[in-house]
Amino acid sequence: MDGTSEVGLRINGKPFSRVIDNRTTLLDLLREQAGVTGPKKGCDHGQCGACTVLLDGDRRVNACLLLAVSLDGADVTTVEGLADGDRLHPVQQAFVDHDGFQCGFCTPGQICSAVAAIAEARAGWPSVVTPPDTPPGPVEPTAAEIRERMSGNLCRCGAYVNIVAAVREVAR
């Protein structure tokens, strides 16, 4: 065994195959081998969310924590894959409209996380702040719900008020 494996993924809808070191994280594969620079290496410990991407639809993951070899056959969507040609995804447009970014370093991860958070709430997944007596069905996109669902994504500039407003607009 030489410590390498072939991995095949779909990245933003396009097939990608490569022989990689088994220790390669999804984040490093995306940035260093696939040329996808939206996901950022912030903390490299899964604590800041700058590397958040969507896996197999709308499940958010921290790309810095996943070994790429464990994802053979998976579909990975980064912030670059959300837009439809020149037309921004509704969450991307809402971030622009609400000025939901300052330096922009965390923005790709924030946007991917917001897409997943909205999908989770629409699917009726409760969060820790969802009232226990909430009937089954979509969860109301209150500011508290959005803050809780986005709590894994840090913004060192403090654009949280605008991020919550952007997510809330799309979630409604």
From TrEMBL:
<keyword id="KW-0479">Metal-binding</keyword>
<dbReference type="InterPro" id="IPR036884">
    <property type="entry name" value="2Fe-2S-bd_dom_sf"/>
</dbReference>
<dbReference type="InterPro" id="IPR052914">
    <property type="entry name" value="Aldehyde_Oxdr_Iron-Sulfur"/>
</dbReference>
<dbReference type="InterPro" id="IPR002888">
    <property type="entry name" value="2Fe-2S-bd"/>
</dbReference>
<feature type="domain" description="2Fe-2S ferredoxin-type">
    <location>
        <begin position="5"/>
        <end position="82"/>
    </location>
</feature>
<keyword id="KW-0560">Oxidoreductase</keyword>
<keyword id="KW-0408">Iron</keyword>
<dbReference type="InterPro" id="IPR036010">
    <property type="entry name" value="2Fe-2S_ferredoxin-like_sf"/>
</dbReference>
<dbReference type="InterPro" id="IPR006058">
    <property type="entry name" value="2Fe2S_fd_BS"/>
</dbReference>
<dbReference type="InterPro" id="IPR001041">
    <property type="entry name" value="2Fe-2S_ferredoxin-type"/>
</dbReference>
<dbReference type="Pfam" id="PF01799">
    <property type="entry name" value="Fer2_2"/>
</dbReference>
<protein>
    <submittedName>
        <fullName>2Fe-2S iron-sulfur cluster binding domain-containing protein</fullName>
    </submittedName>
</protein>
<dbReference type="Pfam" id="PF00111">
    <property type="entry name" value="Fer2"/>
</dbReference>
<dbReference type="InterPro" id="IPR012675">
    <property type="entry name" value="Beta-grasp_dom_sf"/>
</dbReference>
